[in-house]
Amino acid sequence: xxxxxxxxxxxxxxxxxxxxxxxxxxxxxxxxxxxxxxxxxxxxxxxxxxxxxxxxxxxxxxxxxxxxxxxxxxxxxxxxxxxxxxxxxxxxxxxxxxxxxxxxxxxxxxxxxxxxxxxxxxxxxxxxxxxxxxxxxxxxxxxxxxxxxxxxxxxxxxxxxxxxxxxxxxxxxxxxxxxxxxxxxxxxxxxxxxxxxxxxxx
Length: 202
Known about the structure:
alpha+beta; Aminopeptidase; eight-stranded mixed beta sheet; Bact_Acetyltransf
């Protein structure tokens, strides 16, 4: 009888605890829509919503020469996952001009940048860097150990930005990208510093 009660209690506790963890994750990933200044220009930052999907796909199409690596359904599926996904959008004069997305693996303590794109006319104005820093800050706040991403091996401009933010190359994925089968560079920035030799002997 005691064993059965213990099993029931453990099952209830795991379900209750998991529910609390999911709720906390959702709260951690919540952001308030607000205006902000980037290089003396005012923009509007918000969390991506389902009505934003067509504009997100349009930005992606403009950036990738008419191609859409992710279609509208893929983005919609991502936006449903409010407990482990965060997609940010930047607007100017009510036009969506940039977005970025990140997945958060709570068990592995790994945050992975899934997408980032800025309309060509707005590239070089600091929007991509702002979005990356915002996602890195969120990952650090949530206790992630690292932030990872893939980038086309030919995209040196993006790689330079990622290096500036502390990312380092960790490998190559051969033929990673659908369509042209271009290689991807794996990159990672650690968020938790390794203990120094002094602190490890304390």
